[in-house]
Amino acid sequence: MALTKYKLGELIEQCDERNNDGKYTVADVKGISTGKLFIETKANMDGVSLVSYKVVKNNEFAYVADTSRRGDKIALAYNDDKEILISSIYTVFRVQRPDLLLSTYLYMYFNRPEFDRFSRFNSWGSARETFDWADFCDIDIELPSLPIQQKYVNVYNAMLANQQSYERGLEDLKISFEALIDEYKHKAPKRTTGDILREIDCRNVDGTITEVQGINITKQFMPSVANIHEVDLSKYKLVRKGQFAFSGMQTGRDECIRIALYNEEFPIIISPAYAVFETKDDSVLSEYVMMWFSRKEIDRLGWFMSDGSIRTNLDMDRFYEIEIPIPDLKVQQAIVEIYNAYKVVSGQVKSAKNGH
User: Fold this and answer.
1) CA-to-CA dists, residue 70 to 35, 64, 75, 121, 150, angstroms
2) Helix-, strand-, coil-residue percentages of the chain, each rounded to 5
3) What is the per-residue pLDDT for 244?
4) Alpha carbons 275 and 237: distance in angstroms, whole number
5) Is 193 helix (H, G, I), strand (E, B) or coil?
6) DSSP labels for 289-347?
7) The pLDDT of residue 74
8) What pLDDT, on a 0 to 100 scale, did the predictor assign at position 254?
9) 267 and 209 in contact (C-beta within 8 Å)?
10) What is the mean pLDDT of each run of 10 residues along the chain (356 residues)?
11) pLDDT reported for residue 307
12) In sequence order, what DSSP letters do the residues of 136-180 get, joined into one string?
């Protein structure tokens, strides 16, 4: 595919239309996010004159030259909707060579992490760094033909549509999940953790298992960061599929109960300082218990129940006092399935956004 190199300044031009006649109101004022979108302004607009504010028409861009303190990103957005107003400190521009460059293709270019890194690296200043218009126009850009650009745009638009569909589905799942939880939180009988779980203490006595893991604050197992050189792993505890690992240390400090459910086939080992649990009987699903411990309200309760020492630990006897509503197995299974579907869709949305 043949590419032709241009300076961006050859393809774009500034726009400077102002709200001189007062056609636009405060309702039309927008800001720009580092997510490359126009957003509702956060500025206090009481008594502010909008005469000097700039108009951004359909197919026009705007950006903020100041790149300081923006998380190494440049705030830039493309207007593909009705006309809006933005602050006079912003720069508005448009494509002046539509025979060479599609506006949506240029917006795709601006969304690339490479563009943010380039603009941040080429910013200048002391207290406040800027990526000014001259530097902006000096960017080298290689363009394919218009038909090829359009193909990229079509793929891009299809990806956006899929992402929006995922997000709508995610919100529906979240509403269903929260509705079920709220319903059974109040009407299902409550049982204490001590009544549901029993502690297991199986050690790696023969030393055959060497994969040492810990638990992070997102309630997932992770490779241990501890120095285990010359450590006797025979004293470490085994964790098998369907079992929980729990650490009450620093629950109050982290405002998080460190507990994780292990779902892999091959067992791992964890520090002897951790506790290992499993459900006492088949009346409670381990996935349902883990779902409850994934909720923020349980973390807040754990923080409240932590002791007053420097470490703010959640002692075992207090952990056993935590109550969980336990409906019948069919309801537990339904809640777990909705929760798992929510996690899958949520992960897909995040992946799509990261690749955006």
Assistant:
1) 10, 10, 8, 13, 31
2) 35, 20, 40
3) 96
4) 8
5) helix
6) HHHHHTSHHHHHHHHHHS-SSSS----HHHHTT-EEE---HHHHHHHHHHHHHHHHHHH
7) 84
8) 85
9) yes
10) 86 94 91 88 86 94 76 84 92 95 93 85 74 90 91 83 70 76 88 96 92 91 84 93 93 90 93 95 94 91 83 89 93 85 65 50
11) 81
12) HHT-EEEE--HHHHHHHHHHHHHHHHHHHHHHHHHHHHHHHHHHH
Question: Angle CA(114)–CA(117)–CA(122) in degrees, nearest 5?
Answer: 125
Closest CA to 292 of 339, 331, 245, 246: 339
First CA to last CA distance, the chain = 23
Please name the helix (run of DSSP H) or strand (run of DSSP E) that holds residue 183, with its range, or none. helix 146-187
Tell me the β-bridge partners of 48.
none
> Tokens representing 195?
């009544």
CA distance 62 to 117: 18
Given this model, what pLDDT does residue 356 score? 44
AA letter at 278: E
Domains of the chain: 4-144 (3.90.220.20), 189-326 (3.90.220.20)
Residues 356 and 350: their CA atoms lie apart, in Å, by: 10
Buried b (16+ CB within 10 A) or exposed e, 184-212: beeeeeeeebbebbeeeeeebeeeebeeb
